[in-house]
Design goal:
about 425 residues; globular; homodimer; 13 strands; alpha/beta; seven-stranded mixed sheet
Chain lengths: ~425, ~425
């Protein structure tokens, strides 16, 4: 048995059904590796020694690659001085000053550990601010695993009673949702673009974003942008800067400390009083190591061309993929911002094509995702893109050769349906 | 203006109302420092250069002191290899095997970041397991900031509709709460002892713990011990091992990685199926650095006399304090396990005495808490206890001298009332 198989079997015993959450590989092709021993730049080494170019960046946690020496150096230095303690490191204040200086709408910050903490505090603060309960979220959007925004077994109807769904980018649907909330609207939540799993990604319509802002201004509700996944991958500001709309609150996480655990809720003056009345705390929320790492990350974000670079790399990948798909006669849809690409195949309702293609890519040393958006790292190079396209050429050929014998994965087919 | 005052003022601007949560000093005596530049063993150095013996251990996050070189060494080594990535490090499996080997009732683990994540997953899994909604918690107990267990502004009545209160250690009250739940009981939650703020701590009555177990067995509900604060400070197992009762689920956090951010929910076979059906994930939950730190911490817990040592140190502190209080004619109540002591003063309903005494202790370089339980670190020495008692001698003298001019802190008095 390979090391990978042994570890999977051991994990099956000591976790409820193996590795859970977004790092479960139950819905991935069988040859996907789950266990790794090292990572550097955009490359991860599996326990069986195989090296992969990683297009997931730990699901968006790092923007500057794995093991960035300058960022990790700042982390270790701070961690050794004071990481968690009965008090606060000055770096926490510095970081809040820096973030509120960068993100236009933000006047204050609350640092937390999970993206879910940030979105949930957003909901609580909006409810405390308005003394109302209804929260509008787009159908299918993921805002964390907390009960107010989840339909998981173990959550109750009552816990999510405040949620009203609308259709992303559909102004009429948003108007109807606001009407449905009556005089009880606390917040409108929005992701920067529609980045749900399994579907073509949808860029935000500026008219929709503006209407959400207007409706909040009219009703006194708060507008919350959930930038946990997309933050700093679209703009050097809250992502809705790209459509000219400022929220009252924004939720951040993932890459702000380049992989070190740190999330944040940012808010404006209007929301400050409510934010100071709500009760919240976390054992590790004041950990200063990740904050020092975040200061270096933010310097990089503000003072380098990382954004233009990942856009250039993402465009090169997109163009190369389009050419290859065309050459092989395969209908490939590439959606979402070029820095957060989603690849889906035409006539592939149960994702059997994407599944097989990704499996062929992994076989060729490129780790892509068949049904979740990917992330372009600033540590990627044009050579890496070239190597990726070479792998893709082979993967397309194998996909075409497999032709009609392709079978769906039953679990994924069920999820797609 | 001192560095401390400057930082407090800056924090006031960029956080909703200064540093929040359990590290806010709004309810602490005015001379309490909030900002620190370094920490080692049991000593923290404030931004103004003053050194304090810390009896809070970062609110229980470290058991082996700040900056433990062996634990931090394991952390850094793992962090540099793989910390967060698109996959899992083998150390995650090792740690789950180790923890489920140590904690008698546990067959599986879910690693998370906050104590609140662990308790909330406990509630969700109990609800999914039973397909019922009612959760019994003891009046006044803290199980995290999530809406199901909080009465904070911004939470809704509906979100906490499932909660039923009982009185800790009162079997009749527990029976009545179960009767009130009817056929809808999902879980009984319990802290290992009653460690609420502002009150004398109450050790668990074995009859109460056994009755909770019986009632869960009878109704099919799950028994959940919230060991986030007390874990490994009372036993080398779940803390209710001290009263001979095994829960179905236990929530862990704080010290399992000696200050590195890691929490966990542990569960038994009975709860496994439900745990595998509930949806949960977190961006940083798979971070491997803290897991490597936890492995060293657990080795220390299982293979050294740390527990007997902190009990001996705690007893020496308790005995010394009792002698001093007596000598100064001050009524001091020391409650809770000796490893997690609470000091409260007789005839002190608004905590003005405790407040002043702690203020005198901080003046003398000892950081104690006027209304929250404290923590004895294994890095503390008998010399440190001696230094503490010397400070306490002066603090008691100053308290007695202040006599009738003592004034209450208005905020704390309001909270006490």
């Amino acid at each position: 048995m390979s090391d990978e198989e042994t570890l999977k079997r051991r994990a099956q015993a000591v976790f409820p059904r193996g590795i859970y959450g977004h790092l479960s590989t139950r819905l991935m092709p069988e040859n996907y590796p789950q266990f790794f021993t090292s990572a550097k730049g955009v490359r991860m080494t599996g326990v069986d020694g195989k090296v992969y170019i990683d297009y997931m960046c730990a699901f968006g946690l790092n923007l500057f690659g794995y093991g960035d020496e300058e960022i990790n150096g700042a982390f270790v230095k701070q961690m050794l001085a004071t990481d968690t303690l009965t008090g606060v490191s000055p770096v926490m204040v510095e970081l809040a000053e820096r973030l509120t200086g960068i993100v236009t709408h933000a006047d204050w910050a609350i640092f937390v550990k999970n993206g879910t903490d940030a979105t949930t505090l957003g909901a609580m603060i909006a409810r405390a601010h308005t003394k109302r309960e209804k929260i509008i979220v787009a159908e299918g959007a993921y805002h964390g695993f907390a009960a107010w925004s989840s339909a998981s077994p173990g959550t109750t109807e009552a816990e999510r009673a405040g949620r009203i769904a609308c259709t992303y980018n559909d102004v009429d649907s948003l108007d109807r949702a606001v009407a449905r909330a009556g005089d009880d609207l606390a917040a409108i939540f929005a992701t920067p673009f529609k980045h749900d799993i399994l579907i073509d990604q949808i860029e935000p319509d500026a008219a929709y974003a503006r209407r959400a802002r207007e409706l909040c201004d009219k009703t006194g509700a708060l507008l919350v942008v959930d930038d946990v996944r997309a933050g700093f991958k679209l703009a050097r500001d809250c992502s809705w800067a790209t459509v000219g709309v400022e929220p009252d609150l924004s939720a951040w996480g993932k890459c702000i400390a380049n992989g070190h655990p740190l999330s944040a809720l940012l808010g404006n003056e209007k929301a400050r009083r409510a934010a100071s009345r709500v009760s919240y705390t976390g054992s590790f929320w004041f950990q200063s190591g990740p904050m020092a790492a975040a200061l270096v990350t933010l310097d990089r974000i503000m003072n380098t061309g990382y954004l233009e670079n990942i856009q250039t790399l993402g465009r090169a990948l997109r163009d190369g993929m389009a050419t290859l798909a065309d050459r092989h006669g395969v209908g490939l849809r590439q959606t979402g911002p070029v820095t957060m690409p989603m690849f889906l195949f035409d006539d592939d309702p149960d994702h059997r094509k994407g599944y097989r293609w990704c499996s062929e890519m992994v076989e060729r040393g490129v780790y892509m995702h068949p049904f979740h958006n990917m992330f372009i790292s600033n540590a990627l190079t044009m050579d890496d893109v070239g190597q990726t396209l070479e792998a893709a050429d082979g993967a397309f050929r194998a996909l075409v050769a497999a032709g009609p014998e392709l079978a769906p994965n039953t679990r994924l087919a069920a999820l797609s349906a």
